[in-house]
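pls design
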């Protein structure tokens, strides 16, 4: 069984970004700064960026409805 660290290091960052972008777009949400974090490629981090408060509230609503 792979550990969380091993799975993290093998995740395709570009695919993860595009999957999230598609899901957010379907929900009518745009995160302009969404992308791979070029400063730490070995960590496979994704930058969500700065987001306006109204967008955060819409995102929270979508997540809450999806968890219900």
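designed seq:
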């Amino acid at each position: 069984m792979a550990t969380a660290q091993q799975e993290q290091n093998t995740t395709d960052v570009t695919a993860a970004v595009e999957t999230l972008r598609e899901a957010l777009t379907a929900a009518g949400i745009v995160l302009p700064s969404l992308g791979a974090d070029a400063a730490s490629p070995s960590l496979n981090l994704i930058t969500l960026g700065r987001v306006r408060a109204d967008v955060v509230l819409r995102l929270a609503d979508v997540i809450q409805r999806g968890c219900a």
